[in-house]
Amino acid sequence: MSGVKHAETFTYQFLTGITTRDWSRMLRENRNVDPIYWHRAAFISLMSVINSCYKLREDRNHGAAIAATELTEPPIFILGHWRSGT
After folding, report:
1. Quick check: helix, strand or coil at residue 48?
2. Domain total for the chain?
3. Nearest-angstrom CA–CA distance, 46 and 23
4. What is the SS3 assignment for 12?
């Protein structure tokens, strides 16, 4: 068993929502992934490719409408903890 708690798990990986461009930049800036986390990096890499495909589709289908949307009031930001139900 590994000496690092939860090194083998995939659960609660907030980076699984990242795009390939951002993931590549993060890897390049940090330069190293510890070998005990290579499986997580591989999983995140796979998910980043899938996310990038969805992003391209979303940009193609909705990008013009989003860009054309004019904000008439300042945006409201709701801050909450990911497990709070916010």
Report:
1. helix
2. 1
3. 10
4. coil
In a structure prediction context, what are the per-residue pLDDT tens digits for the chain, which is 86 residues long?
Answer: 556 666 666 666 788 899 999 999 999 999 889 998 898 899 999 999 999 999 999 999 999 999 999 999 998 998 877 676 65
Residue corresponding to tokens 């949307």: 69
Give the three-class secondary structure for 32: coil
* Residue from 59, 58, 27 nearest 45 by CA: 27
Which residue range forms the structural domain that includes residue 8?
1-86
pTM for the whole structure? 0.70
8 Å CB contact between 41 and 18: no
Rg (the chain; Cα; Å):
17
